[in-house]
Design goal:
Low-confidence stretches: 9-20
Radius of gyration: 13 Å
Largest sheet: 5 strands, antiparallel
Number of strands: 5
Number of helices: 2
Distance between the termini: 16 Å
CATH superfamily of one domain: Zinc/RING finger domain, C3HC4 (zinc finger)
Shape: globular
Order of helices and strands: HEEHEEE
Oligomer: single chain
CATH class of one domain: Alpha Beta
Length: 109
């Protein structure tokens, strides 16, 4: 995970300051058309709540509004949602974070 709370490893485009906006890639993401304006389906990761687990951060699917726990969380439900649905773009539900990430292109949108 990058220092700004978003997905990504050392090989992905990211910033070094917590909460700052990531550098934008020059080429636009091919999956921007999947972005909708959904309302979050929940205020937490319902799958973690059901099992009594906690999460590090919450991310929301920008196609359907599903809220899941981040890659830094034990269960990685946001990633699992993408793997099950092919909904490609997520955003943070954390205060002060406005990034959007495409799982397919592995880049900020």
């Amino acid at each position: 995970m990058s220092a700004n709370g978003g997905p990504g490893s050392g090989t992905r485009d990211h910033v070094d300051v917590w909460g700052a906006e990531p550098r934008r890639n020059v080429n636009p993401c091919a999956h921007r058309g999947a972005i909708r304006s959904p309302s979050p389906r929940s205020s937490g990761c319902t799958q973690c709540v059901a099992t009594g687990d906690s999460w590090a951060q919450l991310w929301m699917c920008l196609t359907c509004g599903q809220v899941g726990c981040s890659d830094d969380s034990k269960n990685r439900h946001a990633m699992k949602h993408y793997e099950e649905t092919d909904h490609p773009v997520i955003t943070s539900q954390e205060p002060g974070q406005t990034w959007r990430w495409c799982y397919v292109d592995e880049r900020y949108v």
